[in-house]
């Protein structure tokens, strides 16, 4: 049996403790029929259980609000909406009445149907964890259980929880003093439970297939939430190595803190602009603290998460103004709603598609749904009245999409002017280069764009035909593939020839080795995830221009992603201890380097 397990590091920190296996299996629900005169009683029991579960979720939401923040607590809003969903409950009630079934039998039957339907849809698969959590709560209530989350973690010892899947509801109840680490078989970095673990500061590794079978209960486990590694029954040497790694990272964090106020300038004097990617309002503060020079990607999808109605134009304008004001007048690039793929909000009646990532998403949705797109454009124009705000269009594949969007911007500018509402007449309109189609017609897109920003996450997905959310393909999903390196080179050349700025806002820019590649290719504008910014700045300030250029040149000539990664590691390794180069190691004040047993490591 291998002692080393690998998964996805979703919440940084190192922990060592005995494993505590949590099995959250559905209870056995007997097929129970009821007498005709008791049918209405069962319907009432079902409704009472819904009320009970909703109240409980509200309570959990409150706790999350206090322990993590408003965005995290919205996870429960979505679960509440799902619990109360009449489209689901009405057929359950009909089944109780028609087939004279008990509430739990009917509920389980319909939930199973829904699970099967959702499992076949890439877009809905992400929401299965929520459905699972609700189903457990409902069945537990209907069958008179004691509350499934009340599994007992020994109060006097520290443990690492191992589960098949962690729901946000469970994760938030974990006591950080006792639960020092989390391991789950399911889940990726974007899973709700992963986001929560990160906010709560609990080191976590997800997507560890076979973890439940490979980790015996009570076995000592050494977990690294950065690298996504798990060592079973670690030796003294392995613990010592972990301890050394912790202190290396700690030393690095001190160095990063020291340059927070310094500019991003290479040793050869080249000035690099490091902007921040902001997904949630809470990130504004971090972005400013780490010195982001404006926002290179303001994601707006959160405005719709867990909501029953679209946010108003004024609500959006207020938010956009708030962001621009916080960044003291620096540029804020607002991306129009990038819905679709796995990003449809609960309330949006989206079609069920066989291939949602190749379907009705992003700019396509915006242009087809004027009542979604136009208020957003108007909000942007209003906020841009006296602030430096730009509009960016996601997933563009056609010149016409840009032309149509620009026409809408001008029309709404004119309409606001006529209505006497203070607003800019227009704003710069940029294009995200996220598909090979956009790369290949970049010269034509440049004629109608004010700037380009490369979304390497989608560009990698669409170029390599690798689903970015599929844990099984995680090894294949890499922007180091020579096809991506060549496209990055090509787009920058086109942008230069056309005289428009080109930046990179995909995750690649937040990865320090890859950032060196981008610098070497000639990029001087990167928009990065705020926690990663200090490390990227440190790398910018450390690696000389000729070394970065050398790495880029080799990468352009490479035959494989492995070769590109190796080249980068060897060039950068001349200046930096590359073992430290993980963006998630650079979280000043957030990374947890704890929970190694005293006496063995500290
Ligand atoms: C990208 O695709 O690289 C990107 C920045 O957009 P998102 O990750 O939001 O799809
Ligand atoms: Mg994208």
Your description of this structure?
The chain is an alpha/beta fold and 602 residues long. It has 4 domains: 4-23 and 151-238, Glucose Oxidase, domain 1; 36-142, Enzyme I, Chain A, domain 2, CATH 1.10.274.10; 252-265 and 434-582, TIM Barrel; 273-427, Phosphoenolpyruvate-binding domains (TIM Barrel, Alpha-Beta Barrel). 47% of the residues lie in helices and 12% in strands. The protein is built from 23 helices and 16 strands. The protein has helices at 39-67, 70-84, 86-99, 103-119, 122-125, 128-142, 168-173, 192-200, 211-214, 236-258, 283-289, 313-326, 363-368, 370-383, 399-418, 436-440, 442-447, 456-464, 482-498, 512-521, 533-542, 545-557, 561-573; strands at 4-6, 8-11, 14-22, 159-163, 179-184, 204-206, 220-224, 229-232, 273-278, 295-298, 332-335, 389-393, 429-433, 451-454, 502-504, 525-528. The strands form 2 sheets. Strands 1-8-7-3-4-5-6-2 form an 8-stranded mixed β-sheet, covered by helices on one side. The chain has an 8-stranded parallel β-sheet with strand order 15-14-13-12-11-10-9-16. Helix 12 links the parallel strand 10 and strand 11. Helix 1 (39-67) runs antiparallel to helix 2. The chain is globular, with a radius of gyration of 25 Å. The protein starts with a strand and ends in a 29-residue tail after the last helix. The structure holds phosphoenolpyruvate (PEP) and magnesium ion. Phosphoenolpyruvate is lined by residues 297, 299, 338, 434, 455-458, 505-506.
């Amino acid at each position: 049996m291998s002692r080393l397990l690998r998964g996805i590091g979703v919440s940084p920190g190192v922990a060592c403790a005995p494993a505590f296996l949590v099995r959250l299996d559905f209870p056995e629900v007997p097929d129970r029929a009821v007498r005709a005169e008791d049918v209405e009683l069962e319907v009432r029991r079902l409704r009472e259980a819904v009320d009970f579960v909703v109240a409980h979720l509200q309570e959990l939401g409150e706790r999350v609000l206090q322990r993590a923040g408003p965005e995290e607590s919205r996870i429960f809003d979505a679960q509440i909406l799902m619990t109360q969903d009449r489209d689901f409950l009405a057929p359950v009630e009909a089944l109780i009445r028609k087939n004279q079934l008990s509430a739990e039998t009917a509920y389980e039957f319909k939930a199973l149907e829904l699970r099967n339907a959702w499992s076949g849809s890439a877009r809905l698969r992400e929401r299965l964890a929520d459905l699972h959590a609700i189903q457990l709560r409902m069945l537990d209530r209907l069958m008179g259980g004691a509350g499934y989350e009340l599994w007992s973690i020994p109060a006097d010892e520290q443990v690492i929880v191992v589960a098949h899947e962690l729901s946000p509801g469970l994760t938030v109840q974990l006591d950080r003093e006792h639960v020092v680490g989390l391991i789950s078989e399911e889940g990726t970095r974007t899973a709700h439970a992963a986001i929560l673990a990160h906010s709560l500061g609990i080191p976590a590794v997800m997507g560890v297939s076979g973890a439940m079978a490979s980790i015996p209960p009570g076995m000592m486990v050494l977990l690294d939430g950065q690298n996504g590694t798990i060592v079973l029954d670690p030796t003294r040497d392995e613990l010592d190595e972990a301890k050394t790694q912790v202190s290396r990272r700690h030393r690095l964090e001190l160095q990063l803190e020291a340059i927070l106020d310094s500019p991003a300038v290479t040793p050869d004097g080249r000035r690099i602009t490091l902007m921040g990617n902001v997904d949630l309002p809470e990130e504004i503060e971090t972005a400013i603290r780490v010195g982001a020079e404006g926002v290179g990607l303001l994601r707006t999808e959160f405005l719709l998460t867990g909501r029953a109605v679209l946010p108003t134009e004024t609500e959006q304008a207020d938010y956009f103004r708030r962001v621009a004001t916080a960044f003291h007048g620096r540029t804020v690039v607002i991306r129009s709603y990038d819905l679709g793929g796995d990003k449809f909000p609960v309330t949006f009646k989206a079609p069920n598609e066989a291939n949602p990532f190749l379907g009705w998403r992003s700019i396509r949705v915006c242009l087809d749904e004027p009542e979604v797109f136009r208020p957003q454009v108007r909000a942007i124009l209003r906020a841009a009245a006296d602030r430096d705000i730009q509009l960016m269009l996601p997933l563009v594949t056609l010149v016409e999409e840009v032309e149509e969007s620009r026409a809408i911007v001008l029309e709404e500018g004119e309409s606001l002017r006529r209505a006497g509402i203070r607003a800019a007449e227009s704003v710069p309109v940029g294009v995200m280069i996220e598909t090979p189609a956009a790369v290949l017609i970049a010269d034509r897109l440049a004629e109608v764009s004010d700037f380009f920003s490369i979304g390497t996450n989608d560009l990698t997905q669409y170029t390599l035909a690798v689903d970015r959310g599929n844990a099984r393909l995680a090894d294949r999903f890499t922007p180091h593939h020579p096809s991506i390196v060549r496209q990055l080179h090509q787009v920058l050349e086109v942008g230069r020839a056309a005289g428009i700025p080109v930046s990179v806002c995909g995750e690649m820019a937040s990865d320090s080795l890859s950032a060196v590649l981008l610098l070497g290719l000639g990029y001087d504008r990167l928009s990065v995830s705020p926690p990663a910014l200090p490390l990227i700045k440190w790398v910018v300030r450390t690696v000389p221009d000729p070394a970065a250029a050398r790495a880029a040149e080799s990468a352009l000539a490479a035959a494989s992603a492995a070769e590109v990664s190796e080249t980068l590691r060897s060039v950068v390794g001349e200046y930096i201890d590359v073992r430290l180069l993980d963006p998630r190691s650079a979280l000043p004040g957030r990374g947890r380097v704890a929970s190694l047993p005293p006496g063995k490591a500290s």
